[in-house]
Design a protein that fits this description.
It catalyses: O-phospho-L-homoserine + H2O = L-threonine + phosphate. The chain is α/β, with parallel strands linked by helices and 353 residues long. It has two domains: 6-58 and 158-328, 3-Layer(aba) Sandwich (Rossmann fold); 59-151, Rossmann fold (3-Layer(aba) Sandwich). Helix content is 44%, strand content 14%. It is built from 15 helices and ten strands. The protein is globular, with a radius of gyration of 21 Å. The N and C termini lie far apart (49 Å). Bound molecules: ligand F0G. The site of ligand F0G has 22 residues, from α4, α9 and α13.
Length: 353
């Protein structure tokens, strides 16, 4: 049967009523992929929730379909967001479908190329500020107080409602919650949404609760350090955030679930990023790899026990950030003349006979 998108499929768990337009790009229903090689290597039963398979290539579609539907229902004509890239791509796509204006405020030079390309293609009005995500978020929050433009960052509760569906999908696929969920943390909306989703399903169906283990990037680890970071830095631009809006909710999720908010270094992020692609054929953007980097870190520290059933959330598609992939490539393509024999010699010279 045709997948109908999140608003139809999870209607009974979402604030959907007869006036809510059931917009959809067929978001959700993303793969929960068992990783055979890494499971063996790490001594856990590892799955990744590959949310890079969503229509705009990130988990943001889950929350955006809900937030945009409610904006439309309430008669809004325009939506806006601050973004490190993925939120703006999702907002622009769903605004296009719902026929709303979309304004996005992004940190100049600090968003990955694929994400910028999407915002342009979907027709968003793009404002690039000489500041960071936190500055941009402050601006749109203030503007929301004095204008009719609907704010669709994750401070909009409908975003969290939509995003919690990822937890439902995991539980439906596994038959119960995993022992551990590892997840990147930026503005902390997604960890908040997952925890809400796991709790709601558990209340209704006794499906259990995972330990929630969230990972910030070391240079943007505000929650771990318990202080606002004015100039956050990390290669994982998606989570280059120094004052997460859902800070308290992330801490609550970790505490209530016997989990932890921790950080991973850029080196650990890039090592996990390469491992996923080269060992498993899974290409996720750098911020996403923070979940697997964190898993590796906490298996080594003993905080995650061998034999655990773990789901690591891969929040965005690797194609979002082609520059990081190319810059890291140890082997550059060999350029040869357009001559068959020369190409054969080169190719066979590398094959063991
Ligand atoms: N992974 C990716 C790929 C992201 O784009 C983000 C956030 C996160 C993880 C962190 O999720 O903020 O809910 O803790 N991106 C936002 C954006 C900030 O503007 O696209 P979070």
């Amino acid at each position: 049967m045709l997948w109908r998108g999140l608003l139809e499929e999870y209607k009974e768990y979402l604030p959907v009523n007869e006036n809510t337009p059931l917009i959809s790009l067929q978001e959700g229903n993303t793969p929960l992929l068992p990783l055979k090689h890494l499971s063996e290597k790490l001594g856990v039963e590892l799955y990744v929730k590959y949310d890079g398979a969503n229509p705009t290539g990130s988990f943001k579609d889950r929350g955006m379909v809900m937030a945009v539907a409610k904006a439309k229902e309430d008669g809004a004509e325009a939506i806006m967001c601050a973004s490190t890239g993925n939120t703006s791509a999702a907002a622009a796509a769903y605004a296009a479908q719902a026929k709303l204006r979309c304004l996005v405020v992004i940190p100049d030079g600090k968003i990955a190329m694929g994400k910028l390309a999407q915002a342009v293609a979907y027709g968003a009005e793009i404002i690039s500020i000489e500041g960071n995500f936190d500055n941009a978020l402050t601006m749109v929050r203030n503007l929301a107080k004095q204008s009719p433009i609907t704010l669709v960052n994750s401070v909009n509760p409908y975003r969290i409602e939509g995003q919690k569906t990822a937890a439902f999908e995991i539980v439906d696929a596994l038959g119960a919650a995993p022992d551990v969920l590892t997840i990147p943390v930026g503005n902390a909306g997604n960890i908040t949404a997952y925890w809400k989703g796991f709790k709601e399903y558990n209340d209704k169906k006794q499906t259990g609760l995972p330990e929630m283990r969230g990972f910030e990037a070391e240079g943007a680890a505000a929650i771990v350090r318990n202080e606002i970071i004015d100039a956050p830095e990390t290669i994982a631009t998606a989570i280059r955030i120094g004052n997460p809006a859902s800070w308290d909710k992330a801490v609550a999720a970790a505490n209530e679930s016997n989990g932890k908010i921790d950080f991973v270094t850029d080196e650990e992020i890039l090592a996990a990023y390469k491992l996923l692609a080269s060992e498993e054929g899974v290409f996720a953007e750098p911020a996403s790899a923070a979940s697997v980097a964190g898993l590796i870190k906490q298996i080594e520290s003993g905080e995650i026990k061998k034999g655990s059933r773990v789901v690591s959330v891969l929040t965005g598609n690797g194609l979002k950030d082609p520059n990081t992939a190319i810059d890291l490539a140890p082997v550059k393509p060999v350029v040869l003349p357009n001559e068959e024999q020369t190409v054969f010699d080169h190719m066979l010279g590398r094959v063991k006979s």
